[in-house]
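Changelog note: in this version the structure field was regenerated for every chain. One regenerated record is shown below for reference.
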Amino acid sequence: MIQLVLSKKAKKEVENNLDKQISELSKQELKELLLINTYKLALVRSQLEAISDILIKKKLATYEEIWTKTNENFKESTV
């Protein structure tokens, strides 16, 4: 798993830049951005479900194995 490591100063700079960019967007632009991101999330979720189904049908993994690995990855990414 690839993790991006930023110094505290660089992270704060990125956050400030993002905050500035977001604050400059109009309400309509924010709505459109939310809609696009919601669509992308739904698409990725559908793709992951399809991959999981294929792995299970071909007996390459079980639902429990996929769920366990998902939980492990999620915990690692939120540390």
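Spot check on this record: The CA atoms of residues 3 and 77 lie 8 Å apart. Helices lie at 8-23, 27-57, 63-77.
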